[in-house]
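Quick one, T. Sequence first:
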Amino acid sequence: MIKLIDILKEIKCWSGYKPGDPKTKMSSKTGKRVNNCVPVEEEIDEYIVETEQCVKEFVQFMREYKQTLHEAEYHGRKVQLGKPMQGDIKKFKVYVKNPKGKVIKVNFGFGGKSAHGKRMVIKRNNPVHRNAYRKRHHCDNPGPRTKANYWSCRKW
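Structure tokens:
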């Protein structure tokens, strides 16, 4: 049995071309089977600005699509900001920046010393449980991102 990866490795193409669809095609001129090679698309790394209007458009574009900071340093190691992960003290943890600009760790969920080794399952798929939890914890207005209630409500 021939694997698709093996077929792609065998296909030879000209410079500036790469293997396309793994199926071979029939040549219209000779009637022979030929490899399906497609041109390599080049990525554009530059943005050419010619007029003052182009500069204004480019600046506006960069303001709208400014990438948010996803990595930061917490106690000397790099961490991802705003991504909940498996916790060490509680069930979940997330690193966020507070209003002062300092990176803090927010722990949330069932766990810690109060759990005494017990396990609590989140039953967020049950609509009755979900509505009761969201109402009990005021998830319509959960507060700032630096508080556990915000992230807990977001999980629910």
